[in-house]
Write a structure and sequence with these properties.
It holds the Pfam family N_methyl. Keywords: Membrane, Transmembrane, Transmembrane helix. This is Type II secretion system protein. Helix content is about 30%, strand content about 15%. It is α+β, with helices and mostly antiparallel strands. It has one domain. A 6-stranded antiparallel sheet has the order 1-4-5-6-7-8. The longest helix is centred in the N-terminal third of the chain and has 53 residues.
Length: about 230
Amino acid sequence: MSRQKSGFTLAEVLITLGVIGVVAAMTLPALVTDYKGNILKTQLQKSYSVIQNALQMMNNEQGFVAKPGSYAQRAFITTYKKYLLVASDCNSDKCESRYEENEDGDSVMTNNSSNYKTYNNKKLKNQYLDDGQLILPDGSFIMVQNEEKALDGTILISVDVNGIYKKPNRWGHDLFTFQIMDDGKLLPMGSDGTLFDNDTYCSGTSSSSINGIACTYRALTEKDYFKNLPK
């Protein structure tokens, strides 16, 4: 009696490999997106904790709560940086190399903060990023907005969670903004009561030059936020 050998033919093997390739091509991009999104979310949560803890230590030591109007323009960062582990102080170490006049005639720092784009990849206006910049040992990049007391004294803290030298360098993707409120609390921008609402300033279709500034609240609270970022 002859014994039949069981097994796959070459054609069957090639078909199977083809199917596996198609499935991989369909699923791998989603897996990569999920992986990158999880990393960014973890970095955002860590950065929020770091800047919040530094603010709390600062408040405890100075004996009063830091809030809008407490500091002259660009003075907040001088005190605040004492409570952070700082690898580079960009005001002295020249992370930002020069001031230039922008399209509105305002003098703003160029290079690092001008590398950023909005949430939907448009040109970003960096007026909220230019009152002090710090690089921390993990590479995260902190940028402060500290308005003059004569205005409203607004204090915003923005952080590029994976650093200036890593893309995407876009508001609401790896750059996130927090606001110090009148009661001294540090809230994610887009939270109730903050300057910018997320319906208007975290939009995939907005042409605003600060679009993405209000995405922080959504990034911290929405489960699938990082899966749905605009290209």
